[in-house]
Structure formats: structure tokens, C-alpha cells
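User: Please predict the structure of the protein below. I'd like the answer in C-alpha cell form so I can feed it into my own downstream comparison script.

Assistant: Understood. Taking the following sequence of 215 residues as input:
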Amino acid sequence: MLEVSNLSVTYQDSSEPIFRDLSFTLQKGNALWLKGSNGSGKTTLLHSLSNIIPQEIPAFRSGDITLNNIKINDLPLNRLLPMLSIALSNPDWELFFSNPLDELVFALENIGLNPEVIKARIESVSSAFELQDKLDLASHQLSEGWKKLTALAVHAAICPQILLLDEPLNGLSSAGIRRVIEWLKSYLAQGGILICAEHNDAVNELNPILLTMNK
């Protein structure tokens, strides 16, 4: 269970909070859909829940974030995995290796999985995202859509308890959107908790709880 209590965020160059006293509770299998105009605080909320704010982006944050009765506000970013992971809106901010296979292997080794489990998870997400013939391609040869699917496949392979997604469907073809939606349905069915900022109404298929952010 994820509990967010009285969460407020104010950037250092502002006298007004982006949002104030935001509270919600999500159970296993719940999806929360963040809607709102650009600048309404959707990305700020995702960054706050993942501790990017304030650890990497300076801002004043107050309130509590609790996962399964454990307060995670002050956990370093590298200790949040595999409990929580965040997919950023631009895949270029997440892809660092020469090809998709290396991205997947590094991420899974980084959370301490053994080689047999790593192989099985790579096979599973490669099939789900239809990446089989892309694994050894140089990352710079991938289209923006395939870069995004590669980044999302990494998060799918990690399979965190809480998954934060910032515009995951933006820039994808209809086939790519379908792959992502089917993956998220499976993730939720397995008890994952999803928080997603997205303009595409395909998210409705996940039967989400709606949170409208107002600037």
C-alpha cells in the first residue's frame, strides 16, 4: 500500500506551492491517472514521489510518503529500486548504453538478480514489447518510439512495487500504445501500483482512479 499524506512542493524560485496538502492512498493493483494542463504539477508529483525532488531537483517538500508502513521520504534514489521506479518523459534521459540488451542487463544486475532470472526477464519483456530484433541494435539507430519502448521495457523487467510513468504513450504508434497498455494491465493484475501522467485516453482501459491537477 502507498500512502501519501499532506504532500506539498514549492520550488526555490517561487513563493507559491505547485500543490499543497495532497493526500491519497493506493492499494495493490490500483492505477492513479494524473490529468491536467502542462505546468499543473503532474511531473512535479512524480518527481516528489521518487525523491528526485528534493535530492536532484532543489525544492521544498513537506508531507509523508509511506510504502507498506515504511516511510520512504528520505531514502536515497539508488535504494528505492526495486521498490519504486520512474520512467521519465524523454527516453534519452534514461538510456546510457550502446544497445537495448545492455540497458536491460545492467538494470537487472543492478538490483542483484542472478543470471538465470535476468535471462528469463529479458526474454519476457522482449516478447511483450516486440524488441527481439532490436536488442543488439545501436541505440542511436532506434526511432524515438523504439527508444521509449526500450526504456519502458527496462522498468517492466525491474517490475517494481510502484511504477511512476511520465507521458509513457507520447510519441508511440498505435501498435506501441497497445503493447504498453497490455503490459500495464498485466502489471496491475500482479498487484503493482501505477501512477501515470498521460494525456492519451487509452489509460482509461486500466480502470484508473482519476486525479486532476489544477495549476
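That's the full C-alpha cell string. The two ends are 28 Å apart (CA to CA).
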